[in-house]
Amino acid sequence: MPKPLSDLTPDMQSFFQNAMADFMEIDSVTGTMPGERGGGLGPTFNGNSCAQCHAFPVIGGSSPATNPQVELATLDGAMNSVPSFITSAGPVREVRFVRNPDGSADGGVHGLFTIRGRTDASGCDLRQPNFAQQLAAGNVIFRIPTPTFGLGLVEATPDSTLLANVAANRQIKSQLGISGALNSSGNDGTVTRFGWKAQNKSLMVFAGEAYNVEQGVSNEAFVNERSAVTGCVYNGSPEDVTKMVDDSGSSTGTAQQMSSDLVNFAAFMRLSAPPAPAAMSNSAANGGNLFNSVGCALCHTATLTTGMSKFTGMSNVTYHPYSDFALHHMGPRLADGVSQGAAGPDQFRTAPLWGLGQRLFFLHDGRTSDLLQAIQAHASDCGSGRSRFGGNVSQSCGSEANDVIRRFNSLNRSQMQDVLTFLRSL
Amino acid sequence: MQLSAIRSILFCTLLAPAWAQGAPCGPSLEIRSQLEKITVIVSNPSDFDQALAPLVVLRQRYPNDLWVNERYQDAVQQYGIEGHLRRLTEDYQVLSMQHPDDTTYSYLYARSLMGRNTPAATQQMTEIVADHPDFAPAHGSLAEIYASTIFHDESKENNERERFLVLCPAAEVRQRPAGLPKPSPLIDQAENLLAQNGDPDRIAAIAEQGVRDDEWRLQRIRPFDWYSVDYKRQAQRDLQAKYWRLWSLQVRCYRRASRPEKATALLAVMDQRATALHNSSDPTYWDALALLARLYEEGNQKDLAKLKVKSMQDFLTAHPDPRRSAQLEDLQKSH
User: Among A426, B16, B138, B240, which is most buried by a count of CB atoms within 10 Å?
Assistant: First the structure.
């Protein structure tokens, strides 16, 4: 089971534990299925519970070893076929289409499944998208779930800290071709930091978007139902709300009981402890030094410090995310052709490496389970200057990590192994 | 008659709202004959659009006719699910905004809110009758609202009913909400058939249809504020209990049909569902455990049955209940 931050008050710890139960709650269409007491699933969805996909190594993590999406396709009588890119041994995935049929930019999530055929969704005839056709057209990209541990610390980190960190070591970064910029909110101009492209401002927004997009549950942050085909809408919107009367009929429950699922999801992530690193072996210690000297740590920043927080034990905390939470051009090899906020088609947020040793799938689309391959995929020359999505993927074209990966490749085999050992210890 | 008087009558007739031009207490003969030709039957929720198509066509032909619109609203409320109901209200809200001086549209919008946001409908209807005391349909609707169980107010009901019948002596105040479908008897029938060694496939199909019918029944309850929260909760619990009965029937049918692997797979799913209920206050948890213990026992899966009995004992320790203790004793004896 995931742990809460160690310095929380007993009340906050209790809130965390109860919020986790909400994170594990399974949703059905109208909340009528026994054991699936949450309501609001669909009309389109990728999962029926947060914990279904954020599952490994414990609840709140990332994709589990056996992909639950395979069984989900036909749960409760649903009539979905399992797309070719969803396999039992593969990662949990969401799908985005790069372009709309008219050629304009899409970039949005297209639910894998629909509620058609479920016993609790009589009358809904919404079909799945034609994934095979979209795959053949090269219009499909994938994202896997990001782990949620320790994200309260990330949320509590002031913009100024992140900006200063990105600006630090400017000279050496420049020599290695590393730039990097933080994504920002179009509304208030502050730094956004959650999601593969740092597109989300806060854990509340992060949870709200996921609840609506991945499970089809409209909520107080994302109020409108997606794919609201008239014959497939069974609940009023938003489907998840602050409770005026709780499940037992009381209007005087605890804050956790009266809060919406959305607030509880955000609280669970906010109050969760960061991954605990393993004890450092000699090899790992050596790998850590090499990780710094090669230049990985220029983006995968080891240490950040939170600002003042309303939550006990979260103020001025030094933590080790191994990320600068900034966007970097990664070149055509990793480019997904999707823009989100200031993040362009080949830009990604530096993936936090804490807890890496307990992840099964790497990179934004889970394309590999081999850590060395994941490192090598950071390098991507300009080549023809065109990605598979068409057009120049970035002005700089190649990956900002190219020089660092060259330096990594110049290490001898034993040194490389030490770096891998270090990464697995995180 | 003087020319100015004729002009005045003509002017008033041209400006009069639709309800005042025709008979406010019922449709014209032409409309009545059109409406009588239409029978809306939705036997399957997916037939909604097709079943309502004749009414949609009629509404397009007579967009301003009160009775055509009322009939259309009734059909949507009777057969629509949340999305249809929401669209209905939105449609009439737009129409009322497009025709701000036409009481018919204000009334129809208010009427579309009945059962969905009845307090708002009541308020709007009350404003309508205050401004237009002779607008009979609003009095009728208010009488319907005040006669309903949940918004019951006898004195207001009598008052509105009286004013309505003065304006429309031959009219009737309808009962709100319209009758609900009865809980499906099909699960009971399926259980009886199983006891009589009926065809397993047919039994499973009957049971599944029973649950689908009750899901549909719940859709006639959930979106409407004619029903109390407690009533909705109980209807949901009743349906959940039927799901357990459906699954246990399916397990038994699979076993009868020599498909033990399917029975095992379904039992595993049921077990997961029971586990998911464990931390909740859901009263079906105990019943689910009892059912699973029995099904495992019937399938000669003694160890799994014992595990369920153990879970029941643990539950009883945490939540003592003499009735459940007796039930557990009976179960243990049968083992």
Answer: B138
